[in-house]
Amino acid sequence: MNKTILLASIVLMLVSCRTTKVAKPTYSKAPKAELLIESVQSAHFDFNSMSAKISGSYQDSKQKISFKGAVKIKKDSVIWVTISPGLGIELGRVLFDLDSMHFINRYEKTYYKTSYADLSEKIQSPLSFDRIQNLLMGNSMDAYQTKKYFSTLSDERFVLSSMSPRQTKKWNRSKKTTVKDAYTISVSPQNSKIKTQQYSDFKQGRSLQVAYENFDSFNQNQLAKTIVVTIDAEKKIALRLNYSKINLNKRIKTPFKVPGSYETIH
Fold first, then answer.
1. What is the CATH number of domain 30-265?
2. Predicted structure pTM score
């Protein structure tokens, strides 16, 4: 074969390889709300236990803190978290059980316990054990039982919301609505995984937003290894959480013993 023809053929092959793309499916509208809810729930990440190393940052109006630690979850039972600012020294230990949050402060040698109702009021966001567990696993924080839901298509994602499209447009246009609160999620059409979820309290002017990034495959399902939580209220909070060394469905221990010398904070 002539060298010129051979060279031209190679160039054409390389260009073709570089420019060939897998076409993404396009959608003209979202499924009906009932079908979308069913699809999202079927894509929930199911597990018996989960443990992982964590790293991330916490920021409010007064401070920004980077941290490392570990998280362990026994499904529908216990969420256990240790926090270290660095050098492997534990700063605190948190235990969420079905009724309360418990916190051991190693630095100040104190122990604190609070109900989810009091915790929700303190950080101005609706929290419960189930909602915290689902937040950490990328599953729906709402059970879709108390409100009517509407589905739409936006920016190549399916959106499911307890606000109708008409109410949403009115809110975006004038920041006024007769709706007191709303729960909204955006969903990947490819695998029905939640990309963002948000509680909005329009009466109080506050919101809890969660975004999921850096998905990886585990047990033929997808789990987000990065979670970004933003609380927009009287006190603004931003939390970024990264998972690594994830283990699923193994036996785990969640030790939580308060030293007798620690002061109990009420």
1. 2.50.20.10
2. 0.87
